[in-house]
Amino acid sequence: MEIRDLAIIGGGPAGLTAGLYAARAALNTVLFERGMPGGQAASTERIENYPGFPEGIDGPELAIKMSEQAQRFGCEIIYSDVDKLERQEKGFKITYGENELLAKAVILATGAKPKFLGVKGEKEFHGRGVSYCATCDGAFFRDGTLAVIGGGDAAVEEAIFLTKFAAKVYIVHRRGELRAAKILQQRAFDNPKIELVWHSVLEEVKGGQKVESVLLKDVRTGEKKEIAVDGVFIYVGTEANSNLLKDLVELDANGYVKAQEDTATGVPGLYVAGDLRKKPLRQVVTAVADGAVAVAQVEKYLSSLE
Ligand code: NAP
Predict the structure, then answer these.
(1) Which of 5, 81, 83, 136 is catalytic?
(2) Does 236 sit in the ligand 1 pocket, CB within 6 Å?
(3) 108-145 pLDDT, tens per residue?
(4) What residues contact 101, with CB distance under 8 A and at least 6 apart?
């Protein structure tokens, strides 16, 4: 079986930074990415809080630059899903499709995915008006009316983005105060196309062929009201892509790995970087930091094997 020093699973900002650092440290490294590099950052319209880009940078452009930088120093990228990760005596067996390889160390950087709300109509209308990605689907709703569910950074940022296309965007939030950063809140309050619907939750998505309305419930009074919309964008947080790890390390209720700042999981040779790790702030800037720290740990671990 082919043997590598390091396998990185996931090509978002954390994985790509790990790839860059590992390649520069002359580790024989392979990085697995199942789709386009860049992870969630690549489906973000514009990133304004990553230092070095005073005017901001488009998410896909930043992702391409990170990927090019890692490859420039020799990080090989395999575009494939990893199906299985197994601990073995001499490292970790990675199965991808019909192929296998053995990695002495592994950095898991598979990130997180949007959470589903689990309300009536959500699944049924997914792709027919219900979406979790404004960058991907926003342009389908030119001059339409939209509801964005949630009050965090993602909900507010994407609601503002959606006003580029839509005539009206409701932000439906379960409390009377947004969780999002103050600068985003102010932009939403100042945007004439955005209307806040406070203390309300989504009860049901309704429609025929496509979404036609949302049924909302006021959590204080229990009162229900139906609003006509063309689309619903749901941003109620994320959960970890940690399936590969579930038999190897301890996970929290949302599937995040309880690793500390040093990214070590407790399993020798296995590290987690980026959004997958339980941490107080999930941003590109904290993901890239994890990627670099994880490689420093891998280097120490590999030299301890010699
Ligand atoms: P988040 O910060 O966890 O916010 C989730 C929002 O959804 C909260 O407002 C929450 O309400 C609401 N919510 C959760 N469960 C709900 C339910 N069952 N029904 C109704 N509402 C519900 O998640 P996020 O906005 O996806 O962001 C994820 C991470 O990425 C965060 O760390 C965030 O800072 C980061 N991020 C940053 C940026 C940026 O810096 N520009 C952009 C996007 C994401 P409560 O407030 O009442 O809990």
Answers:
(1) 136
(2) yes
(3) 999 999 999 999 999 999 989 999 999 889 999 999 99
(4) 1, 2, 3, 4, 7, 30, 93, 94
CATH homologous superfamily, domain 116-234: FAD/NAD(P)-binding domain (3.50.50.60)
Whether 283 is in the pocket of ligand 1, judged by its Cβ within 6 Å, is yes
Active site residue 136: yes
Q: 70 by DSSP, 3-state: which?
A: helix
Residue 137 falls in the annotated catalytic set? yes
CA of 165 to the centre of ligand 1 (A): 23
Residues forming CATH 3.50.50.60 domain(s) in the chain: 2-113+238-305, 116-234
pLDDT tens for 184-204 read 999 999 999 999 999 999 999
pLDDT in tens, 30-89: 999 999 999 999 988 889 899 999 999 999 999 999 999 999 999 999 999 999 999 999
**Separation of 275 CA from ligand 1 center, angstroms?**
13
The whole model's pTM is what? 0.85
Amino acid at 78: I
